[in-house]
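EI: anyone free to look at a 73-residue chain?
SC: sure, send it
EI:
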Amino acid sequence: MSKVFKVTPKHTKRTNGTVLTPEMSVTVTTLQHTSDPFYNGAKEIKETYMRIYTFDFQKACCSKNDFEVRKLD
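SC: here you go
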């Protein structure tokens, strides 16, 4: 059973020529039953940010602490 999460950056982050702003929120569906979308190295989050915003999650050195996660029903 998959779960849906809304992931929103907490603040503006500028790293390695990339910019992440709080307006860049995404909705992510995980493939496995989990309470944390960062459980598998944030694979779904990385793919979603790249697809929607062309934002490289790894290049920006993002971590779980940079985001606010809310579970959607």
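EI: DSSP finds one helix and five strands in the chain.
SC: 👍
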